[in-house]
Amino acid sequence: MAILIFSVLGGVLGLLLAIASRVFVVESDPTVDKIVAMMPGGQCGQCGKAGCRQAAQAMADGELAIDQCPPGGASLVSEIGKILGVSSSSEEIAPQFLARIDEAYCSGCTRCYKACPFDSIFGATKQIHTVITDICTGCRLCVDSCPQGCIEIYTPNATSQSWIWPKPSTSEVTS
Known about the structure:
Layout: H1 2-23, H2 30-38, H3 52-61, H4 73-84, E1 98-101, H5 111-115, E2 121-122, E3 130-131, H6 141-145, E4 151-154, H7 170-174
Antiparallel strand pairs: 1-4, 2-3
Helix pairs in contact: 2-3, 2-4
């Protein structure tokens, strides 16, 4: 008898949830959805917003410049610019930052590993951790979580793989 009562109750509540989801639907802006899909999705807060959806909404509303997502880099700025029909307000994209762990002081507590939203820290409990620089966005969340203070943020030197030729200004081209 109890099984029958709970089955009917579950069915009725499920039906009520289905009806409520259709009645109280919140329409989202397709432009914001496109921007969110392109963003790194780490919710790092480097742009000054709580997360990527809030940043995308602010960019779509014109409240936030399109070059305010450092983890996204220049490619994200150009793609958002194409969607919104605007160009970057600054000549250069903010420099990339990376985290570096001083392995002499790392205790392997895994707090940095757990704090990293991009999964760019490699290591096991009670073992030395290291940063995978190809994935790191320099969001600084690992720095705040490290009890030993052995993580620093730095700007990497340009190499033949990471160097980008600067674009000439329009005044240089026309003269």
